[in-house]
Amino acid sequence: MTEKASFQQNDHQPWPFFWVRSDTARLVGRMLHWRDEKDRLCEECVYGLTERRRLGEDRLHAQMIVPAPLQLGGAWTSISSNWNDGSNYYHWMLDGLTRLAIWDTLPERTKVILPHDLPRFAFETLELLGLENDSITAPSACVQPERYYFCAPTAMTGVWNPIGYQSLRKKFAPYFAPPHSGLPVFLTRRGGTRIPENLDDLEAIFLSHGFEIIDCGTITVREQIQKVSSAPLVAGLHGAAMTNLLWAIPETPVIEIFQPGYLNGCYEQIAFHGALNYVHAINHGQEVFDIINDWCKDLTNSQI
Hints:
This protein is of the alpha/beta class. It folds into 2 domains: 18-153, no CATH class; 175-303, 3-Layer(aba) Sandwich (Rossmann fold), CATH 3.40.50.360. The chain contains 8 helices and 12 strands. Strands 1, 2, 3, 4, 5, 6 and 7 form a 7-stranded mixed sheet that branches. It has a 5-stranded parallel sheet with strand order 9-8-10-11-12, with helices on both faces.
């Protein structure tokens, strides 16, 4: 799928992974991009894209008129970015929390500045990680920490890095359920965009093979972790719920179902680093039903 999607998601490694301290940093705009005392922009904080393509991307001209900086005493880092500004579970986990992979190695206790308007699941992950008392949502469009530790993104968005994968697995491991102690799961997609017209039929096929249908938008993050870490088989529609492949145990069979015309290898990248037995299918009517039936029969007969 990574090759079919043609986003070159496997061509950006090794991605530089580092932290650096600045005592003159200004964090500017909605995305809190790092500018120094000479008003230079940190290239890594905008993923190398220093030219603004859309006004909402909050770079360069969008940052020219800003309030006076709000002074923050002590040591701070930030996980706000162009990719982590919103309510997408994938981007929160992969582009946001992975930047804290080296948080424990910083030379002093460092608090975390979060993006604006975080969804419920983001605050839940902070509670699970014990970070709720060490973080604040962005208090201004221009802040100036006394000491700023820039934690670089672990990878280009959608381009996976084993350091980020291992970090999230380690941090959330206390919430894993025993392997193979649960049902096989189908991660459905009932809200947002790219909802298949044949969704009811897809769900019916998986139900007939003993799968539990899970709408991740209706359960807690802890429950998502437990459902997938305990599942002997994982199936799902391409979408943010497939981020939960992070919790599947190695060699778990996985099938990801794509809508025609929207291909992306980001979850295949997670499956690769998790040593999962990943396959994909494109939702072309009866053809995909046959593929799913064959996949389920082969695996449920041998594993359930």
